[in-house]
Amino acid sequence: MRRNKWNNVIIVAGILGLLSASCENDNITDTGEDTLLEATDLVALQQGDDAEWGVEEVLNLAEEVYQVEAQRLEGKEIVNSGFIPECVTITTMVKDSKVEKTIDFGAGCETPNGNLLSGVVLLSFDPAEPLGTRTLSLSLSSFTFNGIDLEGGAEVFRTRNNENGNPQSEISSDFAATWPNGDQATWKGARSREWIEGFRSGFWGDNVFLVTGSQTFVNRRGVTYNRTVLNPLRRELACRFLVSGSLQISREGWTGVLDFGNGDCDSKGELELPGGAIQEVTLRRIRS
User: Are 45 and 37 in contact, with CB atoms under 8 Å apart?
Assistant: First the structure.
């Protein structure tokens, strides 16, 4: 009788152990060896997303300021979408036949979509370029985005009407960032940015862009992550997050695919790990 009693105890303990293991993995669909993203990779993924949104915000601002200037140069009625807040100071000068715009956010200025910026964005272009295309040069000076120090710049070749009849920009960028906790990273790459909704509406909140391309992101430990768009990333200016599309992220010995969902405006994404496991991740939006 004693032996049977202990056998029953062992069987019950085994069942409880299996149930416990099952509960711990409820949020992971495990079809391979990998079940969790390493902490350093998760931080790099989140910081890469922070960096992307910071650069996108700079491009949004430059696009808005350029649009107003282009309307003025062409003698058209100036339509202000309301995206540039009143706390921004914009100055214009012509130097060596180029128009130079200084977009100054001072010590802190919030955009309508809730991002806090400070410092200066410098925008320049040659008004003598043919109508329909234009090359914009962007650089940053003492610039911060939601508490992240950003440095660097970009060259933007803008086409007024692509094959779909939409404005499109081809962007080559090189940036560096320092987070409030001291973490640093650099990234460079090329992207294509098509303005698919909201053009000429006169209101910033309905602007929608599709982004493709690739970049390299190097974290503070010197690890390089290659980020390549698989399905166009949908950026809605009224949302603080990418709402759809997918991105392949890889480093030496590791490759995953990050899916941004089916249109919901939220901070969640699903990462497919090398072994086939699916992990939900939260993408940060830090504010100082």
Answer: yes
pLDDT tens across 109-122, in order? 999 988 999 999 99
User: Exposed, middle or buried by CB within 10 Å (0-12, 13-18, 19+), for 186?
Assistant: middle
* Rounded to 5°, angle at Cα 221 from 218 and 223: 45
C-alpha 239, offset from chain centre: 12
d(CA 270, CA 279): 6
Half-sphere exposure of 5 (CA within 13 A, CB side): 2
Judge whether residue 266 has pLDDT over 80: yes
Sorted by where each begins, the domain ranges of the chain are 34-282
Q: How many Cα atoms sit within 13 Å of 170 on the Cβ side?
A: 7
* Contact by Cβ (8 Å): 97, 88: no
Nearest alpha carbon to residue 171 among 200, 120, 208, 137: 137
Q: What is the pTM of this model?
A: 0.82
Tens of pLDDT, residue by residue over 228-251, are 999 999 999 999 889 999 999 999
